[in-house]
Amino acid sequence: THCPELPDALLLIARLNLLADGDRKRAAEAIGAALKIEGLDPPDRASLLLMGAEIEEDNAKKLEMLDKAVRLAPEAAEPLRARAAVHAAMGKEESAAADFAKAIALDPDDLDTHENQARLLAEMGQFDRALVSLDRARQLAPQSVVPLTMRAQVHVQMGNLNAALHDLNEALALQPDHPIVLLLRATLYHETRKPDAALASHQGIPRSI
Q1: Angstrom distance (rounded) from CA 141 to CA 114
Q2: What is the DSSP code string of 132-167?
Q3: The Cα angle at residue 55 between residues 40 and 147, in degrees rounded to 5
Q4: Residue 172, number of CB atoms within 10 A of its CB
Q5: Which residues of the chain have pLDDT under 70?
Q6: C-alpha span between 146 and 178 (Å, rounded)
Q7: pLDDT (tens digit, 9 = 90+) per residue, 135-192?
Q8: Could you give the count of Cα atoms lying within 13 Å of 54 in the half-sphere of its Cβ?
Q9: Under 8 Å CB-to-CB from 50, ≥6 apart: which residues?
Q10: Burial (0-12, 13-18, 19+ Cβ within 10 Å), 183
Q11: Are residues 152 and 168 in contact, defined by beta-carbon separation less than 8 angstroms?
Q12: Are 167 and 152 in contact (CB under 8 A)?
């Protein structure tokens, strides 16, 4: 038996020490102690494993912890998202893509997952699928320039420079002084031999950048 409040107390210690100025060693110790407690609910154990994986630096060990977390909380999207990121870091692109797809099926409205999935699919050369992910991201965040900028970059990889310019212009309609978008547009105008438009786009970049 154990004090019912003990897992929550250890979890709090871990979370506090995962903050920017916290002690990650103490966080790891608290997580390890909590995981040794018998009778923890599977979702609670999965949350602890997820936190432990965040601290762990070795990708193989991270993956082992996240595999357990996914098994313990099969209806939770967060362990799948985390495992997808580790698979991607290890070069296991197909496994990462599968985990992103499962996470989206469980939580279809998480913007970051759609953007991360799109980034992975573009790296895999699956541009059409990446565009689908970014269209969904655009629906979820219609006032954000990020999905539009990412979509423009995918169009560039596909060789569709006019489509890329269209997306960048849409992004600038939302945020006219966005320096990265202005710089990307200037570069594309230069590539499409529109020097006057390229110069105008460069001149729009805030002087402080």
Answers
A1: 11
A2: HHHHHHHHH-TT-SHHHHHHHHHHHHHT-HHHHHHH
A3: 105
A4: 20
A5: 1-22, 195-209
A6: 11
A7: 999 999 999 999 999 999 999 999 999 999 999 999 999 999 999 999 999 988 888 7
A8: 18
A9: 65, 66, 69, 78, 79, 82
A10: middle
A11: yes
A12: yes
Can you give the pLDDT at residue 181? 93
Q: Do 177 and 207 contact (CB within 8 A), yes or no?
A: no
pTM, whole model, 2 decimals?
Answer: 0.82
Lookup result for tokens 């805030």: 206
Cα distance between residue 64 and residue 66, in whole Å: 6
Q: Which two tokens stand for residue 199?
A: 């110069």
> In sequence order, which ranges of 18-145 are alpha helices (DSSP H)?
24-35, 42-55, 59-72, 78-89, 93-106, 111-123, 127-140
Token output for 189? 């105008």
Token readout for 34 is 């909590």
Q: What tokens does 37 get?
A: 């407690």
Closest to 76 (Cα-Cα) out of 50, 53, 95:
50
Phi, psi of 59 (to 5 degrees): -65, -35
Name the 3-class secondary structure at 207.
coil
Given this model, what pLDDT does residue 11 score?
A: 65
Closest CA to 169 of 155, 153, 182, 154: 182
Rounded distance between C-alpha atoms, residue 97 and residue 81, angstroms? 10
